[in-house]
Amino acid sequence: MSLDTPPVAADTPVDRRTRARRVGRGALFLVMVGVAVVMLYPFWVMIVDSLKSENQFLSGHGFSWASWRTLTSTIPIAQEVVSSTIICAVSILLILLVGLPAGFAFAKLKFRASGVIFLAIVSAMMVPLQAILMPEFVNITRLGLTGGYTGAVLVYAALGTPFSVFLFATYFRGVPDELIEAGIVDGLGYVGALWRLVVPVAIPAIATVTVLQFIQIWDDLLVGLLFIQNTSERPITVGLAVLAAGRTTSIPALMAGSLVSALPAMIVYLIFQRYLVKGLTMGIDR
Amino acid sequence: MIETTVGARPPRLTLRRRRQVAGALFALPAVALVAGLIAVPIGQAIYYSFTQWNGLTSTWIGPSTWTQAFHNPNLWTALENNAWLLLAVPFALGLPLLIAMLLHQRVVGWRIFRSIYFLPTAISWVVLGLVAERFFAYQGTLNSLLHFIGLAHVNTNMLGYESTALSALGITFVFTMIGTNTMLFLTGLATLDTSLEEAARIDGAGRWRIFRHITLPHLSRFIQLAFVMTVIALFSALFSLIFVMTGGGPGYATTTMEFLIYQTGFAQGDFGTAALYGLILFVLTAIVGIVQLRLIGSDE
């Protein structure tokens, strides 16, 4: 914006309009700082409250590392982080394994009724888990899959697949037909064409799906709460939510745990921000 | 589709046929997963909504389950709560629009501000619910703020009362949606052709007119998308917040449809009615979903 370039030298008499603009800019900056304070509030609460012992929290005075020192005995945090990590990794792997070939098929290897089937899969994006919660729960329990991570992983994979298929198909439409034809004629076969030609150009789309799904699954409560029976296999959000709802665990400990649970998703988010934006606006912004 | 023939020896299956078979096989795992874990349960929910079902045995009752459900005041309370929460939607869109416009002015450090504004998006709503509980608590931040601005006698406890708990939930919901929606609008603004705005400014159009006649129409698709995402989140993503903040209470004051499904099924063990409630939620989101599909579809 050329209009906003500052005056050439500081000594020259600034005319009224520039001064007004400067004041405006200053006010704008202050408003933005204000919004930043509001958006950082959760982190401030977590940090400040976690730096208190239970008594200090109740009295409102003093700080200590007490809650952090006893964190592992209050909340089985290490094991919960491991559970969350395993569930995320396996679910995302599954989503990519079924989503990539399906997206490729719907974009480049059209078969009978593929258009209708594609539309049906995309529509499944709109089905909230709560709408099918009861049958889903009974099916998974009857199959005996609530014992380990399998049930939860399958549900996450099923919920994440429609979006990934949509995103991959949209992405693959941009790959030239000739590239794939040539690969197949050269004897790569369809699996080879997918693996050697299509996947390498789809890295940004893969990153988008991975980041979106990581945050989604890492932060989720409902699936982990209902589809994982053993408390020793609970992911971290479930552990925190159950302790919070029980109202017996000290707030500082919960806040320390919350901070630990928030860290991985925040780091992933800050590094891969642009993929997230891309995923969110997929379909309207190209 | 163009048929390609390869060299002198014709393959057993034509290339086109082989391509179709490969396509079907490639799509199969995804189709099976979605069919087995999403489509089949919808069918089951329809069946079970006509039965008395505790998860193990089900007895067919027929349509009377539906009339019974519609006579249950809890269902109406939940629907009413969902309807009230819709009042949060204009704020969940308006505030992010304002914030995106501010960011779009590109003042010093706007990239850092952008990252800060989006940061809560990465956090679980379980954690945000815990923080919100601290905010609204009797000895929480809200009361400290009220005391600070001189209202020393005011002591709120919004989550503790039936009359205010839903508002507290709505405010928390608005906060949780700010990051995502700001992100959407900022992306929309970035695709705006600035020369149009410049031209309008030179022609003497005021800020409001430029916003009203150039910026807003340009953003319409982004606003539509944000609207649909916000409403769907409102119907199906509040579970974590409700679970940690209120447990649906006090009374049924913060029990929305999705939470009612969970309560009916898992606290009362009435799987049949919970399945039926699920279908009602399904229909509600399907209506919003059709709008969304048309948005996506119109672009292809």
Summarize the structure.
The complex is a heterodimer of chains A (286) and B (300). Chain A is built from 15 helices and no strands.
Write the layout of secondary structure elements.
The complex is a heterodimer of chains A (286) and B (300).
Chain A: H1 16-50, H2 54-59, H3 66-69, H4 71-74, H5 77-108, H6 114-123, H7 133-142, H8 150-172, H9 177-185, H10 189-201, H11 203-219, H12 222-227, H13 236-246, H14 251-271, H15 273-280
Chain B: H1 15-48, E1 51-53, E2 58-60, H2 64-70, H3 73-85, H4 88-104, H5 110-118, H6 125-136, H7 141-148, H8 162-190, H9 194-202, H10 207-236, H11 239-245, H12 257-267, H13 271-297
Helix pairs in contact in B: 1-13, 4-8, 6-11, 8-10, 9-10, 10-13, 12-13
Report how far the terminal alpha carbons of chain A are from each other. Answer: 24 Å
Could you say which overall geometry of chain A the principal axes of the C-alpha atoms support?
flat
Strand fraction band of chain A? under 5%
Percentage of β-strand residues of chain B: under 5%
Order of helices and strands of chain B: HEEHHHHHHHHHHHH
Helices and strands of chain B: which structural class? Answer: mainly alpha
Q: What is the β-strand count of chain A?
A: 0
Question: What is the general shape of chain B?
Answer: flat
Which chains share the greatest interface?
Answer: A-B, 100 and 105 residues
Arithmetic mean pLDDT of chain A = 85
What Rg of chain B, in angstroms, do the CA atoms define? 25 Å
One letter per element, helices H and strands E, the order of chain A comes to: HHHHHHHHHHHHHHH
Spans where pLDDT lies below 50 across 5 or more residues of chain A: none
Q: What's the CATH superfamily of the largest domain in chain B, by name?
A: MetI-like
Main sheet specs of chain B = 2 strands, antiparallel
Overall pLDDT confidence of chain B? 86
Helix content of chain A: over 70%
Indicate the CATH topology of the largest domain in chain B.
MetI-like fold
